[in-house]
Amino acid sequence: MKKQELTTAHQLGDMPAEEFKKYGYELIDWIAEYFTTIEKYPVVPNIKTGDIKNKLPENPPSLPESFEKIFSDVDEKIIPGVTHWNHPNFMAYFNSTSSGPGILAELLSAALNTNGMLWKTSPSTTELERVTVDWMRQMLGLPEPFWGIIYDTASVSSMHGIAAAREEVSEYNFRHKGLTGKEKTPMLRLYASEQAHSSIEKGAILLGIGIDGVRKIPVDNEFRMIPEKLSKAISEDKANGWRPFCVVATVGTTSTTSIDPVEKIADVCEQEKLWLHVDAAHAGVTAMLPEMKYIFNGVERADSLVVNPHKWMFTPIDLSLFYTRKPDVLKRAFSLVPEYLKTAEDSSVENLMDYGIQLGRRFRALKLWFIIRYFGVNGIIERLREHIRLGQMFASWIDKHPDFERMAPTPFSTICFRAHPTRMNDEGMIEWLNEQLLQKINETGKLFISHTKLNEKFVLRVSISGLRTEERHVIDAWKLIQNKLKELL
Ligand code: PLP
Fold this sequence. Notes:
Blueprint: H1 17-36, H2 51-55, H3 67-78, H4 100-112, H5 123-140, E1 147-151, H6 154-168, H7 174-177, E2 188-193, H8 198-206, E3 214-217, H9 227-239, E4 243-250, H10 262-272, E5 275-279, E6 304-307, H11 309-312, E7 320-324, H12 327-334, H13 365-400, E8 404-406, E9 414-419, H14 427-443, E10 450-454, E11 457-463, H15 471-488
Parallel strand pairs: 2-3, 2-4, 4-5, 5-6
Antiparallel strand pairs: 1-7, 6-7, 8-9, 9-11, 10-11
Helix pairs in contact: 4-13, 5-13, 6-8, 6-12, 9-10, 14-15
Pyridoxal-5'-phosphate binds near residues 153, 154, 253 and 308.
């Protein structure tokens, strides 16, 4: 760009401090106002595909633009296309909400912009991560051999668990030899329930195990893996020349939040010498509640575990916690230190780049630290407990209503149900009714719920875990669902 093309407002270098302060304060005011008035927004925007893109210029601006202009475009062009995950009536999927302390920590993290690839490249980034991850370990009631690290998402955490499991299959030296081009390499087999999250298969694809290398174990009528079927599958596979190496149990499955019997699965894993990875991405945080401790029965015997504070602990996306009792295996799988990254402290510190695929590491621990300190462990527990109370309350309304039925147990605050009017018996008709009901509810913009399929049946799903969701929102959601059903009938 020619010198004369630069405006006077933007010479070389960064935004001047005064300007940063002016717009920074404005942005903070905007965010505070957003949270105060969030209920005025439709939870899901009523727009068509391409509506937002069509409002934006195709080419980047060659000259600087003012922040006034950028802010007004946020209001006019971006916000209309935002789905408001922070909205108290966002009850789809899992409600991943942001919080004041989390947002402030993100701001600070961006300002410091540290890269914690090595201890030396920002000691506080590494050491605060070590401390907060260990605080979370204590909060979750995990025993001390569990060592943890922060990754971005549960998909990536589980991929690292599966990679460590693969590394344990030492006889084939996959790290050096790879998986292909050898005549006698056995097919590795990983086991997970039919209800396990798709990220497990994605991890298997990425690690050369392939979709065929994942055997889905049937579930019981409460959507929990059947351990006897697991044992049987392992025996069959061994007889047929497979090399079983890993089992993934889920505590809080994606569709119904069912809890696999980890204790019994751990027995099988110990007997068969298989790596046990536990996916507790969504519901794992509730192990903090004394009355919910039971969900982690047997988890202390797992080799690795994932829990996502960005799903149900008010942490701005993204932050996933990965724990393992065998960090040495994880390190063996991933550590590779080029000359330029060697430091004098290497033998006395943990360089977090050694424990995963990524080199660069942003300062995610800061938001965990802010959140735990601001709410306090008890404050977090109280909020999670209230969500579970609201979830149980909603489940009881479904159970009492003659035109609705619950389709799965509700161990947490996710309710799977469907409309099933008393005189309607045709499954095709019931499915059509529920599809229509979902559409009618969501197009109001007042509530956002999602769906799943259970035993081939179309099921509606309400998940209550938003930081701003109160009893009145759940009551209104239930009224809206009933009214929409009445309209349809
Ligand atoms: N595991 C479970 C049980 C989930 O419910 C989900 C997402 O809903 C995931 C894994 C994937 O999470 P992420 O988006 O953090 O990769």
